[in-house]
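Researcher: Quick test of sequence recovery. Tokens follow.
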């Protein structure tokens, strides 16, 4: 009996009827003829309450439910969670499902309501959007079922605590892969560029063997070695592409619950997938005070999984990023000319000019693309009508910051460094656009 009462939850209908009968008893105090009617209603209410308990607890099984979680969550995307539920009662039940969601989601009012016919099985789904990488712990699955009388609910708990890891956005890989390989990028602003000639990257000088192209004979090296030497070139479909992620404090700025760092991580995963599908070599590393999380550019089957696992562990260290150390480490670690996609952020021209000498040094040996972000929070402010002095002042400052971002892009272009100024939402599309444009123009 004690176990039964532990699982009983009184519903609003019980209190409605109870207070209604109390009011009738008060009324019967003044009208004695109504007392016997009120007494009948009271005893009928008690009997109905007991019948409700009997209906819900006579079947030990009652409701059965289970929760199916994905193997891993995709950061910043809608992830679907499935709940399977079946009814062992001989009557139609109303159910309320309360799932104990991970604390990172900060959802306090989660509830799903439904109904089940006798012996009916049903699959219910709901979606969650995680915005922090890491471990997400789910608690118990709580089911509250009601009989047609609906005076009480019977609570049943299912499942145990489960953990699922939240990885960078892998759900978008197929989406961007489909866009890139069906020429749908034209819809996003990329014009088709005609390739002129061919671009083979010089790799090494080697001894001539039968079958080598005589047009590639290096006569200077032949004269020095007194034997035929030929230039060997790297095929254009095996070029290294590195994504470099700044993990300094400038990347902690949030937009739509995701930080710039998370947008950069998701974009790195998406562009790496496209690079490998295009038969190039994909690699990555992060930097702040030093270069970390390095994945050498390769074209192997396990490369995407290696990049995904590496991206999972990247966090910002809230320090000032050392671009001098970045230049030194790139010169030491990346020997071959590569496409470097640098995800960072500059808010002012002064911030750019402090790092510009190091960017120019990197661009001498590699094709560097600097990717930085628009402050989309300013857009609303820019498009509002300023009336008061404060509003005019705020709008002027916002226009100054927005214009300075464009000046930064122009400054990079002036020094021959390619750049992408993008909103966080359009980062993936614009990065893929730039990579395909570089490939089409043969710049690498």
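Model:
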């Amino acid at each position: 009996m004690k176990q039964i009462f532990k699982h009983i939850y009184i519903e609003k209908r019980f209190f409605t009827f109870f207070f209604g009968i109390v009011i009738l008893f008060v009324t019967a105090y003044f009208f004695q003829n109504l007392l016997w009617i009120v007494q009948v209603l009271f005893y009928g209410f008690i009997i109905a309450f007991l019948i409700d308990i009997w209906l819900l607890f006579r079947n030990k099984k009652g409701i059965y439910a289970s929760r199916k979680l994905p193997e891993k969550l995709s950061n910043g995307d809608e992830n679907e969670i499935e709940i399977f539920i079946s009814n062992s009662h001989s009557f139609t039940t109303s159910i309320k499902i309360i799932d104990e969601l991970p604390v990172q989601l900060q959802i306090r009012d989660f509830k799903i309501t439904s109904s089940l016919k006798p012996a009916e099985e049903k699959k219910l789904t709901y979606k969650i959007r995680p915005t922090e990488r890491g471990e997400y712990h789910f608690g118990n699955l709580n089911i509250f079922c009601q009989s047609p009388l609906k005076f009480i609910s019977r609570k049943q708990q299912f499942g145990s605590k489960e953990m699922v890891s939240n990885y960078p956005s892998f759900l978008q890989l197929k989406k961007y892969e489909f866009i890139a390989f069906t020429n749908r990028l034209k819809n996003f602003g990329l014009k088709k560029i005609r390739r002129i000639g061919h671009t083979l990257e010089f790799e090494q000088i080697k001894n001539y063997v039968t079958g080598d192209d005589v047009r590639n004979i290096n006569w200077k090296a032949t004269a020095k070695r007194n034997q035929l030497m030929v230039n060997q070139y790297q095929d254009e479909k095996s070029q290294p592409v590195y994504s470099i992620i700044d993990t300094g404090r400038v990347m902690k700025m949030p937009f739509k619950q995701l930080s710039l760092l998370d947008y950069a991580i998701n974009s790195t995963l998406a562009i790496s997938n496209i690079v490998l599908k295009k038969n190039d070599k994909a690699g990555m590393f992060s930097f702040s005070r030093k270069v970390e999380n390095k994945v050498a550019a390769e074209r192997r089957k396990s490369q995407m999984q290696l990049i995904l696992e590496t991206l999972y562990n990247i966090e910002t260290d809230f320090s000032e990023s050392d671009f001098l150390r970045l230049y030194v480490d790139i010169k030491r670690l990346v020997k071959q000319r590569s496409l470097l996609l640098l995800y960072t952020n500059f808010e002012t021209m002064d911030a750019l000019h402090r790092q510009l000498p190091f960017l120019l040094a990197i661009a001498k040996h590699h094709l560097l693309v600097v990717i930085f972000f628009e402050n989309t929070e300013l857009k609303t402010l820019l498009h509002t009508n300023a009336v008061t002095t404060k509003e005019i002042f705020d709008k002027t400052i916002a226009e100054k910051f927005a214009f300075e971002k464009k000046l930064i892009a122009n400054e990079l272009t002036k020094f021959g460094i390619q750049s992408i100024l993008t909103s966080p939402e359009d980062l993936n599309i614009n990065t893929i656009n730039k990579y395909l444009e570089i490939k089409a123009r043969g710049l690498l």
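The first strand starts at residue 8 and ends at 10.
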